[in-house]
């Protein structure tokens, strides 16, 4: 394959050379002349014509060279070649033979492209065919709540587990904390210059003429659903519902100094939607799974909803990425379709991920907007994955989504450091943000050049100095706040391999033993790196209980280990012909610990039982003493660090904790209760 190169740039004079003495300068000039002569010789190639041998190229840094694939000699492409050097595969100087690269393979298969511009404008080839398509289809009446505006707030969101799971309808705007224009028409928004209609840009003056035209005289059915009015006079007359402003990531996390007129930020909060009678918007999910508020200023809208279950989302992904979307009804591939009708004055909030289509029976003017929030982040990220898989163009995705996630991460780290408490759905959302940002940092490390560049450009340098550290710190703090004992307990995290018979190695080879104590949790699972478990707020040690009893059990025989299985089970040892009378001294110690957690409180009961068995000689009468069963309470307990040590007894180094003494001696066994 032909090799090419460019001539490196000539080094510049240094300040030391510029300030040298006259003698030094003369010596330096002679040296430069020699170097220039050598460079001139090096810049020549075997094919250079004599007439232009000394000629200089206007920009030597752009000089192209080519190497012969046979003799490995380098030539100027301008002297020895002709055409586009980048298209050459192999080149030979004698004879002059050029082999060109094969053209890039292009598939001849026809691929149906989704008309996103038409979808964005609410314009399909024949809107009425969708109405004919759904005739006779099973469509259910919606089961969604109708709520008063005063009840739609953070208190409802935090106390109702089903809040923001299904769409809700508010029949009047009273109590929503929302402000809307009393009257509006297309002329009200004359300060916005264009509205996109399919592939044609219209001025709002032209759209106003179309809007005022009688329905039977309109050339086509058109629908404006992407006119964002932030930064206009009309925006000053619109205020989204209170709950939207309290949840919206752009409102909460985007720096206030970087919003407003003259700044680039996600402008998705204030849309003016205008649709004429007969307009239809096909099945879709709002970008990045963002939630929507939707207020009918005047007119009527009919919504068709499909619940965002995993099966329905998978069906939507298949449908959206195939030709079936142009001639099939998505509802046939899903479980249920619900119908909702909205009229003048109604407001609806559509939660994350709901698949919906919209029909406009009469001319309608709507104000609405999109917002991301922390109560269903996993679904938002799932919808974003669908957009990538179905190749939705970037201009139809949520603007600056990754940058907004970085701003949210920076704010949540500060909140978690300040010990601010969050409800479980928000903690799950914070962890999902962290996982997404960790993937972004991995793209910066191992992605393609284009992916690396794009991921780095999305990081806000004014707030995030080390994105890798920020992403991992947020993940650690979110899991810690959620009460996870280790990384292995986290949602969706890969668990470590469980040891088999105490062997943690994969092939039986021994590994260096890990430290315990502060490096491991009380249940034996490894804690976070550099993590220290918070202390207990109250440790109560109960007074030890001592009791003495007589029992009959076989004495362990010296030199054997068969007795260990029976004694290690902590059950009463069966009385047999070899049973002997024994005096049993037992001491029970109980420690109770309590502390607060992010989800409530944690209480731990630690019980330690020490038994000491002493065998005596058999009674002269030959009668046996009734055996007393000694065992712990039937509850799970564990040994804590604060438990006192057992009394000193004669013990061996065996793991069963039993020591044996010669005739008439004692044997002690210390075991945690509940084993």
Model description:
The chain is an alpha+beta fold. It has 4 domains: 98 residues, no CATH class; 284 residues, Cupin (Jelly Rolls, Sandwich), CATH 2.60.120; 88 residues; 135 residues, no CATH class. Helix content is 24%, strand content 22%. It has a 7-stranded mixed beta sheet with strand order 7-8-17-14-19-12-11, with no helix packed on it. Strands 6-16-15-18-13 form a 5-stranded mixed beta sheet. The longest helix has 23 residues. The chain is extended. The C terminus is likely disordered.
Span between termini: 72 Å
List low-confidence stretches. Answer: 7-18, 188-199, 488-526, 619-675
Please tell me what the overall shape is. Answer: extended
- Strand segment tally: 24
The helix/strand class is alpha+beta
What percent of the residues sit in helical stretches (DSSP H or I)?
10-25%
CATH superfamily of the largest domain: Cupin
What value does the average pLDDT take? 75
Strand content: 15-25%
CATH class of the largest domain: Mainly Beta
What is the helix tally? 16
Total number of distinct structural domains? 4
For the sheet with most strands, the description reads: 7 strands, mixed
From the alpha-carbon coordinates, what is the Rg to the nearest angstrom? 39 Å
CATH topology of the largest domain: Jelly Rolls
- Which CATH-level-2 architecture of the largest domain? Sandwich
Strand order of the largest sheet: 7-8-17-14-19-12-11
């Amino acid at each position: 394959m032909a090799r090419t190169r460019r001539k490196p740039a000539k080094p510049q004079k240094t300040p030391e050379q510029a300030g040298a003495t006259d003698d030094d300068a003369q010596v330096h000039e002679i040296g430069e002349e020699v170097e220039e002569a050598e460079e001139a010789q090096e810049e020549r190639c075997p094919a250079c014509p004599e007439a232009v041998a000394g000629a200089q190229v206007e920009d030597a840094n752009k000089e192209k060279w080519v190497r012969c694939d046979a003799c490995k000699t380098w030539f100027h492409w301008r002297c020895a070649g002709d055409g586009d050097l980048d298209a050459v595969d192999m080149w030979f100087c004698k004879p002059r033979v050029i082999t060109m690269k094969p053209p890039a393979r292009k598939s001849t298969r026809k691929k149906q492209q989704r008309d996103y511009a038409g979808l964005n404008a609410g314009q399909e080839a024949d809107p009425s065919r969708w109405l004919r398509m759904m005739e006779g289809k099973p469509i259910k009446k919606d089961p969604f709540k109708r709520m008063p505006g005063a009840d739609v707030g953070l208190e409802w969101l935090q106390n109702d587990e089903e809040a923001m799971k299904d769409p809700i309808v508010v029949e009047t705007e009273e109590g929503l904390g929302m402000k809307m224009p009393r009257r509006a028409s297309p002329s009200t928004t004359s300060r916005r210059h264009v509205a996109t209609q399919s592939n044609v840009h219209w001025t709002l003056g032209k759209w106003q003429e179309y809007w005022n035209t009688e329905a039977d005289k309109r050339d086509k059915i058109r629908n404006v659903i992407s006119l964002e009015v932030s930064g206009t006079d009309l925006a000053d007359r619109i205020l989204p519902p209170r709950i939207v402003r309290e949840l919206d990531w752009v409102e909460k996390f985007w720096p206030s100094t970087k919003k407003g007129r003259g700044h680039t930020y996600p402008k998705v909060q204030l849309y003016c939607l205008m649709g004429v009678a007969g307009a239809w918007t096909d099945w879709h999910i709002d970008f990045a799974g963002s939630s929507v508020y939707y207020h009918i200023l005047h007119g009527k809208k009919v919504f068709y909803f499909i619940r965002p279950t995993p099966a329905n989302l998978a069906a939507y992904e298949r449908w959206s990425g195939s030709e079936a979307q142009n001639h099939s009804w998505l509802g046939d591939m899903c479980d249920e379709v619900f119908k909702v009708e909205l009229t003048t004055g109604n407001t609806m909030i559509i939660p994350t991920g709901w698949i919906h289509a919209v029909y406009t029976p009469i001319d309608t003017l709507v104000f609405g907007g999109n917002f991301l929030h922390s109560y269903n982040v996993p679904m938002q990220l799932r919808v974003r994955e669908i957009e990538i898989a179905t190749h939705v163009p970037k201009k139809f995705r949520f603007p600056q989504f990754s940058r907004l996630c970085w701003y949210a991460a920076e704010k949540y780290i500060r909140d978690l450091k300040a010990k601010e408490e969050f409800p479980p759905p928000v903690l799950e959302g914070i962890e999902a943000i962290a996982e997404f940002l960790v993937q972004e940092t991995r793209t910066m490390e191992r992605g393609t050049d284009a992916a690396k560049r794009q991921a780095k450009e999305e990081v806000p340098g004014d707030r995030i100095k080390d994105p890798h550290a920020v992403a991992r710190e947020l993940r650690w703090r979110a899991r810690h706040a959620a009460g996870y004992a280790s990384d292995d307990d986290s949602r969706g995290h890969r668990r470590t391999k469980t040891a088999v018979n105490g062997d943690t190695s994969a092939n039986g080879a021994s590994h260096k033993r890990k430290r315990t104590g502060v490096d491991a949790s009380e249940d034996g699972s490894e804690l976070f790196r550099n993590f220290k478990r918070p202390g207990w707020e109250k440790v109560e040690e109960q007074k030890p209980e001592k009791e003495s009893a007589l029992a009959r059990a076989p004495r362990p025989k010296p030199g054997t280990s068969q007795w260990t299985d029976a004694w290690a089970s902590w059950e009463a040892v069966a009385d047999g012909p070899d049973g002997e009378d024994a005096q049993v001294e037992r001491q029970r110690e109980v420690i109770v610990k309590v502390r607060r957690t992010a989800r409530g409180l944690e209480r731990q009961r630690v019980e330690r039982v020490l038994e000491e068995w002493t065998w005596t000689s058999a009674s002269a009468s030959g009668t046996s003493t009734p055996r007393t069963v000694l065992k712990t309470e039937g509850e799970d307990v564990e040994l804590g660090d604060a438990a006192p040590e057992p009394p000193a007894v004669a013990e061996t180094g065996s793991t069963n904790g039993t020591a044996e003494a010669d005739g008439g001696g004692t044997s002690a066994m210390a075991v945690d209760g509940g084993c």
